[in-house]
Amino acid sequence: MPEPTPPIPSTCDEQLLCSLGPGFSLAGSDPGRLARIRDEVAYGFAALAEIENAVSIFGSARTPPDHPHYKLARAIAARLGALGFDIITGGGPGIMEAANLGARNAGVRSIGLGIELAHELGTNPFVDLKLRFNYFFVRKLMFVRYASAFVVFPGGFGTLDELFEALTLIQTEKIRHFPIVLTGSQHWSGLERWIRERLLEPGMVSADDAELLVLADDPDEIGELIAHWRHRQLETYRPSPS
Fold it and tell me: Coiled coil where (predicted)?
């Protein structure tokens, strides 16, 4: 008789988001949960308070070290580091590891924002500043709040989630002057075409929206683009008192 499959550990996000059946209520545990969320946001703000110029790099955790994208992520992170940008990743393997390695080689902060998962990926050995979050939305806040740009490599659902959430924030002007660079042009060209044919032509997005994504593969070009946008950010952005 086969052994029973061990239960998947419950995560904080699952406890927050999932109802467990008829008559179940989260209300009794919400005050404590809200306090933990507040503490987690404060933890991230305090740990990252000194980050002024950074780029968040996303991509597949399954990219092996001998893949061209791994080598390219390392090179781009190193180039951005030479321009004074710290590097933020999810702290895991694959593209994240490559970017953290490039940051370390460039002598800038190599930051990994880990997340509690049912099946842990672990932290790559090239992270110098390691944070671990229980809630996805708190972690996402850190990726955007402390970055001047996103560089997005081919990846799975998590990569696409970060990409389209950032696009939504830009489109709705929740964030401004924020470049999103898609690296691995051959991979992303189909998405760009789909956006133009299926979203722009029927009028679901504007022409400006369709221009929010930049396809680029050259580390020097990407570095120059992001440095230009960062200069523009610093010149034009005036935060409100609140």
Answer: none
